[in-house]
Amino acid sequence: RTFAHLSGPLTHQRWLDAIKQGRTFFSTGPLLFLTVDGREPGEESALPASAPADVRVKADVTSIAPVETLEILVNGEVVQTVRAGDPSKLSLKLNFDGSVPVPAGGWVAARATGPKSKYLGDDYAFAQTSAVYVVRGGKKYVKPEDVKFLMDTCDGIWTRVEKSRWRSDAERAAFKAAIDKAKAFYQKLLTN
Asked: Residue 77 — left, alpha, or beta (φ > 0 → left; ψ -120 to 50 → alpha)?
């Protein structure tokens, strides 16, 4: 399930706006909250290029089912792990409050996991936040391997559907144009 963090009263429009802004986390039950330099998921922390490499990260997970780990991820890699104390007494709460290096900028997220639980319909405790984006010196972080993966995915999609039956030549051309536009966007990320 996807959960959205709203400001103010709950309305359908505020809920949709929060989802569009990325102020979300996915969870099988645990509640997971994250801030990076006071910013929440979906927000951007703009830092001067000369700012210290570390950012302040706070993450809290609370669950009706036990949780084993709380992880802090930077650009897809786990950089900090908080483990529940005694394995026979798994925790219903874990938190992290500390500095995390993000020298080139990028994104920071939190993830919590736990063992199988009778309290959860999805078998085990899991939650992950959307990202807080760290931008240094006005330049957004780009991981070349990820961009290459996305470009290859575009090629794979086109290869798979290229010889499909199209309703019209115009529909085929429009789809190809969308693929080409996506690839051009990713190529631009690599050259900036």
From this structure: beta
